[in-house]
Amino acid sequence: MYPNPSSDFLNISGLTETQHYGIYNIIGTEVKKGSISNQEKIDIQDLTNGIYLLKLDTWKHL
Question: Domain of life, per the record (predicted)?
Fold first, then answer.
């Protein structure tokens, strides 16, 4: 994931398939969610300054 820190967009390298993601604030509230594929960016311009956690849903359906 880069750049870190960022205030505009996040890039995640090495994705081989579309991934669902959630962005959580420091107290654990989900503040943004969506999906991302290789070469796409996550727009974080609407988030206020702070520390956030990014969780990718890498669970595969069998």
Answer: Bacteria
Tokens describing residue 13: 């390298």
DSSP annotation of 2 reads: B
Q: Which two tokens stand for residue 28?
A: 């654990």
Which is nearest to 38 in space by CA: 8, 61, 14, 62? 14
pTM of the model: 0.85
Instruction: Please give the structure tokens belonging to residue 53.
Output: 């956690």
DSSP string computed for 10-43: EE-TT--S-EEEEEEETTS-EEEEEEE-TT-EEE
CA–CA dist 34, 56 (Å, integer): 10
